[in-house]
Specification:
The protein is mostly helical. It folds into two domains: 30 residues, no CATH class; 52 residues. 48% of the residues lie in helices and 7% in strands.
C-alpha cells in the first residue's frame, strides 16, 4: 500500500522539486550527458525562507557582499545552487 503525504508548496517550490526529480532521473541513465535545467532565481523573500534567515539579515549580507546574488534592475535575485554552495562553504 502506498503512503500518501499531502503538503502545501508554492508554485516556485513545486517547480523546483519537479526540476530536481527530473534531473535525478536523467542523471541515473547510463551514458546520459548532464543536462542543466534552468533553475530560475529566488527572490529575497524566497531566499530568506529557504535558508531560514530574516529578510533584514539577507539584505545585510548583500550589502557586505557576503552572499552570492544577482541584480536585475533594482531586483536582487539568488540562484539556489549558488546558495547551496555558499551554505556548505560557510564557517
Amino acid at each position: 500500500m502506498k503512503k500518501i503525504i499531502k503538503s502545501t508548496y508554492s508554485d516556485a517550490e513545486l517547480r523546483q522539486l519537479i526540476r530536481e526529480e527530473v534531473q535525478a532521473v536523467l542523471s541515473a541513465i547510463p551514458g546520459m550527458p548532464r543536462i542543466e535545467l534552468n533553475e530560475g532565481f529566488l527572490s529575497v523573500e524566497q531566499t530568506a525562507e529557504y535558508i531560514k534567515l530574516a529578510k533584514p539579515t539577507i539584505y545585510g549580507l548583500i550589502h557586505k557582499k557576503k552572499i552570492p546574488f544577482h541584480k536585475s534592475g533594482k531586483k536582487v535575485l539568488f540562484k539556489k545552487s549558488e546558495l547551496n554552495d555558499w551554505l556548505s562553504n560557510r564557517s
